[in-house]
Please model this.
Amino acid sequence: MQPVEQSLSGWGRFPRARCSLYRPERISEVPQIIGFGRNEKYIARGYGRSYGDASLNHDNGVVLMERMDRFLSFDPDTGILRCEAGVQLAEIIKYFLPQGWFLPVTPGTKFCSIGACVACDVHGKNHHKDGSLGNFVEEIRLFTPSGEVVRGSRKENVDLFLATIGGMGLTGIILEVTFRLRPVKSAYISVDYIRTKDLDETLASFEELDSQYTYSVGWLDCLARGPSFGRGLLMFGNHAEPGELSPLRTKKARLVTVPFDFPPGILNKYSLQIFNLLYYNMQKPRKKTLVDYDKFFYPLDKVLQWNRIYGKKGFLQYQCVVPRKSSVDALTRILEAIKKSGIFPFLAVLKRMGSSSGGILSFPMPGYTLALDFPFKNNVLDLLTTLDEIVLGVRGRVYLAKDARLSPESFKLMYPNLDRWQKIKAGVDPQDVFVSDLAKRVGL
Model:
């Protein structure tokens, strides 16, 4: 199979890399690809929704999984679905929500593959209750560098299974995933919106209310100062009970597309101030409403190619997690460092996290996670290094699926189980056949 040479990027559009692309149609074609090029290295790629360089492989092979997207089996009694790794979350929702099943965990987009979600051990708005996707994975089938297809689970090849959950695709190519869907009675979410006046009230609201809801998430106003510092809009939700008019179906969402890259300067402090003011004040201090799953889980999916809003230079998303006991101090220092820098994120999302899935390199840990979108500017890298220092100081960590610039020194300090993971990696892939630009950058 001959590759196609092409420049690729993650969703943040920074960095870019020239890669050799392979697009297998079936699982049986994967062995024909691996080893095709002399000394070539490989990484699998779904739909390019990781933000940084996790699915880039400069001057080496990228195996596109998008055509390996078949459902293989489903048990309607247990909700256990077996499918190929290239299946998109949107397709799972399309076919199984009308039958009363939903994703057990979902990130903020449905336009990503289930294989990539396992490789990143994605988390969602229900991590405080249910943990990450790895908690719901029953089995994976993994193509290893030896050419063998290995089954992994919590009972079979356990170490390899746990190294693959959150392993960023570096233990081999995930071919199939077997996991449990969530039974639901409605396609709608009953949501309580709560407007908070400052950071103390924001965190206190999470602590007080999280246990009552399956889902929770908060938007922070990073421009607010003085007594409004850390104010936000919080959303707490549960799956709605059956109502009228086909509760397991919703109206088809109307999609719009950003047709071109926005010119520099449109996204600035002043436009952000206007947006934050309108967004914060559009909600009543407390409001309860019923919204469909798309509006609650995937608001940005209605705007195709929304990453073009940040212009040709792209953007960096910085997502960290800090321990619960240090959350007030760490989040205060992060917001203050942003304010001092004068570089403001155009999106700031806060969630509370629960226990880890057991994935050796999984990002989640008990505490609070903050995700920040910064337009790419020369001095933004200095700011993010400052944020790294704050996160390291409280023994937190940065999410690899969103990262594009973390140093190997910081990475090693943030992920204390790295040595265990590297031993498993060396056992299954001693020649480092599976690598990525992320792996080379942070020393994986």
Summary: DSSP finds 13 helices and 21 strands in the chain.
